Amino acid sequence: MKVNTLTSIGILINTLITAFIYFTEAYKGLDIVMIIALIMCYIGFIVMQCNQAKIGSIIFCIGSVLFIPIGLVGIIGVRKIVEHIEAEKFKKLHYE
After folding, report:
1. Domain range for residue 35?
2. What is the total count of domains within the chain?
3. What percent of the chain has pLDDT above 70?
């Protein structure tokens, strides 16, 4: 399964936001929550690579919710992947 650019950019931005929060003294306490959300994004990303795009996209989206509005980049990316897979299944089912 190929991951699109938006998903890769989304996970990179989420990682940078989490690193910023982790190293900023004013946001102590929030860093644990953001790390958990980031781990969910990575788990979703890995699950998508294991040909479980629908489940992986759900996990990725749940993790990205805390990063809204920036997290929308990744959410849009995984949504496009799922739509592409569904379109391929539809073509295979109806045209082959």
Report:
1. 5-95
2. 1
3. 97
